[in-house]
Design a protein that fits this description.
- The chain is mainly α and 73 residues long.
- The chain has one domain.
- The chain is built from two helices and two strands, in the order αββα.
- Strands 1-2 form a two-stranded antiparallel sheet.
- β1 and β2 form a beta hairpin.
- α1 runs antiparallel to α2.
Length: 73
């Protein structure tokens, strides 16, 4: 797993890349609009990994078992 500093460097690189991306291009009467969803998903993934890398208390995982006398699982 990457350290917090490595994740922060990746995050800054993605932010710089998103800022430099072109959202649309017009040439004559034609226009092309690019979808930046993949870049924003990558940024969200890095931020979630950063959240996990910090030592904040994690939620407790709970399990529930149900047993039935009628053969149901």
């Amino acid at each position: 797993m990457a350290t917090y500093a490595e994740l922060e460097a990746k995050r800054q690189a993605i932010i710089a890349k998103v800022a430099s991306l072109t959202k649309s291009v017009t040439h004559g009467d034609k226009m092309v609009v690019f979808d930046l969803e993949q870049a924003t998903k990558a940024l969200a993934l890095i931020e979630s990994e950063m959240q996990f890398a910090t030592d904040q208390p994690r939620r407790r995982v709970r399990r529930l078992r149900i047993k039935s006398a009628k053969g149901l699982v």
